[in-house]
Specification:
Layout lengths: L2 E5 L2 E4 L4 E8 L6 E8 L6 E7 L5 E3 L7 E6 L4 E6 L8 E9 L7 H5 L8 E2 L3 E6 L1
Parallel strand pairs: 2-11
Antiparallel strand pairs: 1-3, 3-8, 4-5, 4-9, 5-6, 7-8, 9-10, 9-11
């Protein structure tokens, strides 16, 4: 059974930091890219960051570039999203998702990493709230 389990969300003041984790199981980790998305109340879901497990290539949305960092621990089948310099507008439910990229030609994260339709599996989400 495929599972993606997010953790690490919480309430933090503006300027603070959080680290989100996405623990994956039930599929071959190296054949996938992991994306982080977020959705704030009343807004569309937004792609935040992407990491292709096999080669470590990454991509970030302009709104988080320089503040968020995506990384992986292959031994733990876990992808992390470090959130620094948080702003109230970062408040949202954050989801991780997995996309099979073994047959994808090109740079997945760069070209399709922020497109939710490419992703096969989703976690349940973790709430991040940033107070001003």
């Amino acid at each position: 059974e495929v599972q993606l389990v997010e953790s690490g969300g919480g309430l933090v003041q503006a300027g603070g930091s959080l680290r989100l984790s996405c623990a994956a199981s039930g599929f071959t980790f190296d054949d996938y890219a992991i994306g982080w998305f977020r959705q704030a109340p009343g807004k569309e879901r937004e792609g935040v960051s992407c990491l292709k497990i096999s080669d470590g290539s990454t991509h970030y949305a302009d709104s988080v570039k320089g503040r968020f960092t995506i990384s992986r621990d292959n031994a733990k089948n876990t992808v992390y999203l470090q959130l620094n310099s948080l702003k109230p507008e970062d408040t949202a439910v954050y989801y991780c998702a997995a996309a099979s990229v073994s047959a994808y030609f090109g740079s997945f994260c760069q070209t399709s990493g922020g497109v939710s339709e490419w992703y096969d599996y989703w976690g349940q989400g973790t709430q991040v709230t940033v107070s001003s």
